[in-house]
């Protein structure tokens, strides 16, 4: 046994948290996925897996003024196969799209996360894109939400079931009588794991 291997064994014995992985040895696979909300009336495309997802929107479009000035899409995911004794939470969420904001209008966006087994424990964050100038603001946007008060999954058992993860993204346009549009193209996220 070389010096590095001996050091790793000594550290593992004395300080197991320092060398323990921050992810399960077996990651879960998605067993069911569904969508709800007026922003995903046409089923979004989904690729990747539980830990490296990519959602492609087909109908996420908001207009102000009008009946669609608030639009949302919520994804519901069930997964199993993770190593026993772990919990997972959403850490970061990114939505890419495009805004066109008339003077005095704004886009406020929200990400809300919860597990169906403990829906009262919901983590929500919001952000805003404003047009405070006198000209129309047209730009591609990447809307990042960092979840700080994390909603954690149930503790995985022998089947590695992570519970039903629900991620709701909503965009709302407001203004002073001007006009605005917002379209979301795709969404992805990062997860965080902990022992339980």
Cα distance spanning the termini? 33 Å
SSE sequence, one letter per element: HHEEEEEEEEEEE
Query: Could you say how many structural domains there are in total?
Result: 1
Q: Enumerate how many helices there are, as a single number.
A: 2
The biggest beta sheet reads: 6 strands, antiparallel
What can you see in these coordinates?
- By secondary structure, the chain is mainly β.
- The protein has one domain.
- Helices cover 8% and strands 51% of the residues.
- The chain has 2 helices and 11 strands; from the N terminus they run ααβββββββββββ.
- It has helices at 3-14, 16-19; strands spanning 29-36, 45-47, 54-56, 61-64, 70-80, 86-101, 106-115, 123-130, 137-146, 164-174, 180-195.
- The strands form 2 sheets. Strands 2, 3, 4, 6, 9 and 11 form a 6-stranded antiparallel sheet that branches.
- The protein starts with a helix and ends with a strand.
Summarize the model shown:
Helices cover 8% and strands 51% of the residues. It is built from 2 helices and 11 strands, in the order H-H-E-E-E-E-E-E-E-E-E-E-E.
Task: Provide key terms for this protein.
single chain, about 200 residues, mainly beta, 6-stranded antiparallel sheet, 5-stranded antiparallel sheet, 2 helices, 11 strands, elongated
Sequence-ordered SSE layout with sheet pairings:
Layout: H1 3-14, H2 16-19, E1 29-36, E2 45-47, E3 54-56, E4 61-64, E5 70-80, E6 86-101, E7 106-115, E8 123-130, E9 137-146, E10 164-174, E11 180-195
Antiparallel strand pairs: 1-5, 2-3, 3-11, 4-11, 5-10, 6-9, 6-11, 7-8, 7-10
